[in-house]
Amino acid sequence: MLRAMTTAASGMKAQQMNIDTIANNLANVNTAGYKKSHVEFQDLLYESVVPTGRGSGEADPTRVEIGHGVKMVATNKIYSQGLIRQTGNPLDLMIEGDGFFQVRLPDGSVGFTRDGSFKLDAERNIVTSSGYRIEPSMQIPLDATDVSIARDGTVSVMLAGDTATVQELGIIELAKFPNSAGLIARGGNLFLESPSSGRPQVGRSGEEGIGEIASGFLEMSNVETVEELVSMISAQRAYELNSKTISIADEMLQTVNRMKR
């Protein structure tokens, strides 16, 4: 009877973590560049009550095995394209397809993000909302009257007093990973490289399978509210069923305790 209680308890714990993941998805429904998480489960070890063969030297067609519950093994990020929002701001960028923007972190390492809501700092460097510079860094001249970013990532400006000439400042490069699901979610709309993700392939947008850049648009979260609410109801029902299992197991133990010889 105690096995039923511990098994059901593992189910309640797993569904609790499932609800936590769904809650985080719903909380970030309006977060630019957010990618929803999906929980994966595995069953635990099985106890062989009646071993195969039973010592007869022949294999039985069936066996008696009792499982010990469930565990959460992964929270995978789903990198499908999010909703598109038009802003008209030339520094708002989105990636159509695979790839990540690169930003230089304070410790000197490189972070990766799908959030393209870039801005200018006091030195007119293109930075994220958290102040991290894009990699490679890009500085807009003080006398620039217009900024444009092409689909291949080329950053161009028009200087004051010289409307006939467009000056190219550089190219915004993107990174692509062999296994994006292996990236480490750092928070702040940033991901970090890991051994599971593999080394990044850095290149120009639109080349070698890397997505293209669209200026004046933002990629919003790919969370589907209705889908998450359905998943939440399903997880809640599973939690209730496991809770009911514990109650029934407890009632059976009480029945045994009340029995008289």
Q: Which keywords apply here?
A:
about 260 residues; alpha+beta; 2 domains; five-stranded antiparallel β-sheet; three-stranded antiparallel β-sheet
Your description of this structure?
The protein has 261 residues and is of the alpha+beta class. It has 2 domains: 2-79 and 223-258, no CATH class; 87-219, no CATH class. The chain has helices spanning 2-27, 225-258; strands at residues 37-43, 46-50, 64-67, 70-77, 84-86, 93-96, 100-104, 110-113, 119-120, 126-127, 133-134, 144-149, 154-159, 166-171, 174-176, 184-187, 190-192, 201-203, 212-215, 217-219. The strands form 8 sheets. Strands 7, 8, 11, 15 and 18 form a 5-stranded antiparallel sheet that branches. Helix 1 (2-27) packs antiparallel against helix 2. The chain is elongated and about 100 Å long. The model has no long low-confidence stretch (mean pLDDT 89).
Concise synopsis of the structure shown:
This protein is an alpha+beta fold and 261 residues long. The chain is built from two helices and 20 strands.
